[in-house]
Amino acid sequence: PLTAKINDKNHLEIGGCDVVDLVKQYGSPLYILDEKTLRTCAIQYRDAFKEYYPGESQVIYASKAWSCMAIVSILASEGIGFDVVSGGELFTTTKALEMSGYNGDDIKEKIYLHGNNKSIAELELAIDAGCKIIVDNWLELETLAQLTAKKEQSAKILIRLTPGIECHTHEYIRTGSIDSKFGFDLNQLEAVFTFIKEQNFIECIGLHAHIGSQIFELEPHNDLGGVLADWFKKALDYGLPLTELNVGGGLGIRYTESDDPPSIADWVKTVATAVTKACEERGLALPKLIAEPGRSMVATSCITAYTVGGKKVIPDVRTYISVDGGMSDNPRPITYQSLYQMAIASKMDQEHSETVTVAGKHCESGDILIKDIQLPDTNPNDILVVFATGAYNYSMASNYNRIGRPAAVLVNEGESSLIIRRETYDDLVRQDLLPTRLAQ
Ligand code: LLP
């Protein structure tokens, strides 16, 4: 985080709070979210669009990266909208916005519902809330036509297309190439436009595409501008009154020193320039430009703090140190072989003299947070921190081994406040029921 520094005790400090003290107060593992960094990322996105895009724009946060009420409230106060992909994310977002004093119209203007298999209940929730729906496929389009006609209530939609753009990222998080479960193939679009024209309660306001995540190249986003503008023009020719173009998210972040992503400003400049140029070339008025960053909005504002346990030295092979969390609070290393930077928050002055493998506490050998990293010599009860854990950590956390999800605390200018409570043992059995015949 931007506010990280080493204090006079040689401890790591974030948002003016000593990380070792935070763990004493809130326990570990602990997600520590720095409000200043989060706001700075939001402001960088918002201001870059103002600077580089001559038309109207809206940045919406991809909630899947980390949806919780505090983050929604903070981002909303910076003018950010929300991409939600489930009834649960929609509920969290609308509840947080209501509790933060936003009124109904403000709310629906800025929420977009995504998903490749939205349930009828989710679609109804979105129609009733009046938020915009990004339609992914034929079944959904037909269902939506029926639901809106039955309710006699119109819905604003965007059509998600598969742009056929390849980019270099992990195959699980690549979404824009032809072989993708998301979106309409380009050769289906004219039939889609014809279908929408015949519906009375569906208002198609735009097009959407997303090419993947943790992307360092700018070229694919440049190419996307042309593909979207082509289809935007075609939709207008079909008589659909489109006004919005949504270019998705995908900007990568620096997890380790060898990662070299473009800045938020450079990414926005590329996207904004590509769309402006593509529209000008085709004689189109500039649409409202939407982008939906997730990772690059939240990842760098959070660290996870763990308490170190035992050390296992296997001579000439490897030294393991164990921490009190692991794949349940950060499933990214085991899922995507993701790498992270780490430090010992209680020993920031000490040299990184030992090569260790940091193991989680879960019952499987693959639960390793990182292999062979250089750290200071550790003892039990040292506090190990992992950097840049704001995206896809809490949101992908599980209760594997019946371990409760950690707490999250927001820090700013020396103050900390709990934003997510630690799950208790009672929380773990809250949904369990004994069949009546077995209960005493
Ligand atoms: N829009 C759509 C339609 C998406 O599918 C995604 C991410 C985003 C926006 C935000 O992309 P971002 O700015 O965060 O790259 N769990 C994986 C990442 C999955 C991304 C899924 N979609 C990970 O931990 O790396």
Automatic annotation (TrEMBL):
Q: Which Gene3D superfamilies match?
A: Alanine racemase, Lyase, Ornithine Decarboxylase, Chain A, domain 1
Note the InterPro entries from the entry.
Answer: Ala_racemase/Decarboxylase_C, DAP_deCOOHase_LysA, De-COase2_N, De-COase2_pyr-phos_BS, Orn/DAP/Arg_de-COase, PLP-binding_barrel
Describe the reaction catalysed, as an equation. meso-2,6-diaminopimelate + H(+) = L-lysine + CO2
GO MF terms here are: diaminopimelate decarboxylase activity; pyridoxal phosphate binding
The enzyme's E.C. designation: 4.1.1.20
Q: In which pathway does it act?
A: Amino-acid biosynthesis; L-lysine biosynthesis via DAP pathway; L-lysine from DL-2,6-diaminopimelate: step 1/1
> Keyword annotations for this protein?
Amino-acid biosynthesis, Decarboxylase, Lyase, Lysine biosynthesis, Pyridoxal phosphate
Q: Which residues are recorded as modified (N6-(pyridoxal phosphate)lysine)?
A: K64
Q: A Gene Ontology biological process annotation?
A: lysine biosynthetic process via diaminopimelate
- Named cofactor requirement(s): pyridoxal 5'-phosphate
Residues binding substrate are R295, R332, Y336, E364, Y392
What are the positions of the active site? C363 (proton donor)
**Family of this protein:** Belongs to the Orn/Lys/Arg decarboxylase class-II family. LysA subfamily.
Provide the protein name: Diaminopimelate decarboxylase
